[in-house]
Amino acid sequence: MAIKVAILGYGTVGEGVYKGIQNHQEQLIEKLGDAVEVAGILVRDPLKKRDVQPGTFITTRFEEILAIPGLHAVFEAIVGKEPGYTYLSQCIEKGCHVITANKVLFAKYGNELLKKSKQHGVHIGYEATTAGAVPIIRTLQELLKVNRVTRIQGILNGTSNFILTEMRANRLSFGEALKLAQDNGYAEANPENDVEGKDAACKLKILCQLAFGCTPDWEEVEVEGIAAITSGEVQKAEAEGFRYKHIADIRAEGGKLKASVKPIAVSSAHPLFSVEGVDNAITLETSLAGNLTLQGAGAGKFPTASAMLEDFSAILEKSLRTKIHLLSARVPV
Ligand SMILES: NC(=O)C1=CN([C@@H]2O[C@H](COP(=O)(O)OP(=O)(O)OC[C@H]3O[C@@H](n4cnc5c(N)ncnc54)[C@H](OP(=O)(O)O)[C@@H]3O)[C@@H](O)[C@H]2O)C=CC1
Ligand SMILES: N[C@@H](CC=O)C(=O)O
Questions:
Q1: For residue 326, what pLDDT is reported?
Q2: Which domains does the chain have, with CATH numbers?
Q3: In this predicted model, what pLDDT tens digit does every residue of 15-36 receive, in sequence order?
């Protein structure tokens, strides 16, 4: 029997998930033992043309998604805290695994959703909320359990890095570079979040919670975007051997967490100097492993879908293992 999933939102990310599922059935069957069927897609505008297979169920009514019999998992790729939080809460209560790309929602309600998922015996995947395809969440969750993380420094917004790169390398104006980022599907529906640093701040909050288990007073954290940087400043920095990078930074210092999100002109000695275009990169300072840097596409249709589908596969494998374990525990010896 096919594994039934639904997708909330069919924009850049939702479409990437749909197409990723269609193009990777062979790999999914091999990993999960069954085909994956997209049993429903939730959208806002019923009149928009969607590139989907004929007969695909598309609705604007969330209740119809929730009513799909035998729904295993829901991919959430809509925008903002609500109605996403309400939708994901209801999916979890119904016993569905959820996989989200929505960092605004997760930065605010991640803890509540994780608690609720434990109560209902389901899993939440949120790799796609932070740094696109870069597997930073599961690296922290699964591969750095003993190490103490003492600092996280990263480029966490693909749009900002893309704009700064285009302004420097191709001499585009800020407006031209932003337009290109929007055309490529990197920017948020409201790009203010990208260029004012708010998007990177949400991602830093998610990483901070995971790595440190607590947070600084976010009201006091300096959050600045790239919107005020001029072409002249970018060229001057270049001539002096520097590049502007939008850097989110959090470190444990004297028993406190200190954070900032802002553009910095870095020299070629800085680990993030060569991270260009839409790439994100994160350097972790750890107690045993030393410094680790992960880098890759930080935004875009398929890089984001990649993070969501890898979460999905890991969650289904995990829940399959739990079922087998429970079944074998019942076998009399
Ligand atoms: N773009 C990217 O590279 C990345 C995006 N993200 C996150 O993923 C999410 C989606 O981003 P993206 O695909 O770029 O956004 P888009 O604006 O391209 O798509 C949003 C989709 O959500 C649907 N939608 C919005 N609000 C509602 C609602 N209330 N009810 C039902 N459907 C709704 C829209 O419907 P309709 O089509 O009818 O308008 C649209 O299909 C966001 O939270 C974003 O922050 C995360 C990582 C990377
Ligand atoms: N708008 C975001 C998309 C991914 O999170 C970005 O540019 O990084």
A1: 62
A2: 3-132+301-330 (3.40.50.720), 136-297 (3.30.360.10)
A3: 999 999 999 999 999 999 999 9
User: Tens digit of pLDDT for each residue in 100-121?
Assistant: 999 999 999 999 999 999 999 9
Catalytic hit among 4, 103, 203, 245:
203
| Residue 19 designated active-site | no
pTM for the model: 0.96
Determine the distance separating the centroid of ligand 1 and the alpha carbon of 78, expressed in angstroms. 4
Q: How far is CA 133 from CA 14, 62, 126, 145, 217, in A?
A: 15, 28, 11, 21, 29
CB 24, CB 59: distance < 8 Å: no
Low-confidence ranges of the chain (pLDDT < 50): none
Beta strands in 66-173 (DSSP E): 71-76, 97-100, 124-125, 149-155
Give residue ranges with CB within 6 A of ligand 1: 9-14, 42-45, 48, 77-79, 83, 101-103, 128, 132, 185-186, 188-189, 299-300, 304
Q: Quick one: which ligand is closest to 105's CA?
A: 1
Chain segment 57-100, per-residue pLDDT in tens: 999 999 999 999 999 999 999 999 999 999 999 999 999 999 99
Tell me what pLDDT residue 285 has.
98
Phi, psi angles (nearest 5°) of residue 232: -60, -45
> What ligand 2 atom has the least distance to the C-alpha of 187?
1
| Ligand 2 lined by 127 (C-beta under 6 Å) | no
Q: Measured in angstroms, how far is the CA atom of residue 115 from the centroid of ligand 1?
A: 25
State the closest ligand 2 atom to the C-alpha of 298, by its place in the atom list counted from 1. 8
Question: Which pLDDT score, from 0 to 100, does residue 143 have?
Answer: 97
Asked if the interface predicted TM-score (ipTM) of this complex is over 0.90, the answer is: yes
Q: Which atom of ligand 1 is nearest to the CA of 83?
A: 29
Task: Give residue 313 CA to ligand 1 midpoint distance, Å.
Answer: 22
Order of all β-strands in the sheet with 124-125: 58-59, 36-42, 3-8, 71-76, 97-100, 124-125
Ligand 2 centroid distance, CA of 203 (Å): 10
Residue 131: left if φ>0, alpha if ψ -120 to 50, beta else—which one?
left
